[in-house]
Amino acid sequence: MKVLKYIASVVFSLCLILLFLYASVFFIGFNEDFYEREYEKNGVYDIVGIEKTELSAVTKHMLDYLKGKTPDLHISAFYRGETRQFFNEKEIFHMNDVLKLFNTGKLLKNISLVFVLCFSVFVFASGKKMLTIALKTVCVTFVSLLAISAILAAIICIDFDSAFTAFHKLFFSNDMWLLDPATDMLINIVPLEFFIDIAVRIGILFFSLSAATAAASGIFARAALRCKREN
How many C-beta atoms surround the C-beta of residue 139 within 10 A? Predict the structure, then answer.
């Protein structure tokens, strides 16, 4: 029974990790102000030949598509002197793959949330012993995660381009993500520099949430053990 409690606590910790990762991606990745700052920083308006209001409308439509609020990516915009469809069929195909990835993440988030809530009720209903086991497991799991994350972050920083390519090969079964700046607008509005910045910000938020959880669970686990000894 004790082994099952530890296994359930590990699953609980992993579900928390998934929730933190999803929250970090959603908070940064769907922030329209972040996109506008990146457009300014990377000179996107001049490169594409588009006004800020036009690109803002395109960005909102793209993010609404990924949120499931609009059925497709077909949107017209005035750029380079004429009104035309902003995304071509190749870009739409790739973004459909991205949508599937987001939907999978959303499903995992929902499953994780249900397990976290159910397990939390079970822990508090079971008493201090189970609470101590859960807190210790969460602390150990998140400390391990932080160590692994630090190693991965170092590897990614050394060669982000290779890490970016590896990510796409791992999560996409085709090469439609290989876009051409001469014909595909998506790679012009979100170039490699954009992905570096968004990865850094997502990583910082995720690392901060994980570190806070590791610290809090460790502190409360010690307090629970101290209370148990005194009683």
Answer: 21
